[in-house]
Automatic annotation (TrEMBL):
Domain S-adenosylmethionine-dependent methyltransferase Rv2258c-like winged HTH residues, every copy: 26-100
CDD domains linked: AdoMet_MTases
Protein name per Swiss-Prot or TrEMBL: S-adenosylmethionine-dependent methyltransferase
GO biological process: methylation
The entry's keywords: Methyltransferase, Transferase
GO terms of molecular function: methyltransferase activity
Classification of source organism: Bacteria, Bacillati, Cyanobacteriota, Cyanophyceae, Nodosilineales
The Methyltransferase domain, residue ranges: 175-334
Amino acid sequence: MTTTTPINQAKAEAFADTMLETLNRGAIALMTSIGHRTHLFDTMADLPPANSQQIADVAGLQERYVREWLGAMVTGGIIEHDPDNDTYHLPAEHAAALTREASPDNVAAFAQYIPLLGAVEDQIVDCFREGGGVPYSAYTRFHQVMAEDSGQTVVAALVDHILPLVPGLTAKLQQGINVMDVGCGSGRALNTMAQAFPHSRFIGYDISETAIATAQADAQAQNLSNVQFQVKDAATLEATAAYDLITTFDAVHDQAHPQTVLNNIARALKPDGIYLMQDIRASSHVHGNLEHPAGPLLYTISCMHCTSVSLAMGGPGLGAMWGQEKALEMLEAAGFEQIEVKQLCHDFQNSYYLARKLG
């Protein structure tokens, strides 16, 4: 005999309303990505109130699609509509979070993760049933979106805010030191440092041939002679006491062999060198992330990308939300004895680990 738990009808109705709002907001996230990629937000930020044809003409787009997109934006509370004149307007207060000029506060750039991850939903569902993971190659545009993401939050703050977290580091970079970036992706961070510090020598490694090709092309376009990029698995690094500074930007938790990578980084540092690791600011425990402002988004990205690409390579699947506790544990296991964790007031998403070996 089974018993049925009584349902709190008011609670059930409130939750149904919440889920409908979730569906609406998910749809808005998808359309926000389109607004970013088509430069519609940037276009409208510079326009007075205009009709759909005028907006389409300025943006160089098809009016019928623009009109339907505007419908989603108006009903979603993003864009304002004057029914008397049939004109549309992007308020300056909204443009401050939706345009490229708003960097690093441009939320529209992050919305691109929603359709990007949705494209691999079938493969992820298969992984739920059969195990394994989805390889990097399945994620179209991932490096492009990731580069734009880090360009807003990390690269833009690198020289003026992140590097100064290490006392005296900027002066050393100006004098000339050896720097390695592991998991360098499209090379934006390394090329930025190479441009800012011409007396230092930089090398970047990444497993993606596409990302390295982009990094090399950007370095050549900037006429940078003090930076090199190579396709290499970070788990195979063999350098010993060769670098004054080693950096990783949002790269460790994706690795197939993250502990090996950290061990290699520790070995590659000079005795007085420092390892600067940027990664997602979070707890290793779900209950520690209940108040995280982007908790659901980051767990979703972790499930559908970070965890999966690691598992696809036979890795442990740490995931983006591996958290501070686990990060400290693994840094200590790699031989780092002096570790500081710092944050920047403008950046709620990331933590910056400053790790040194003693003796």
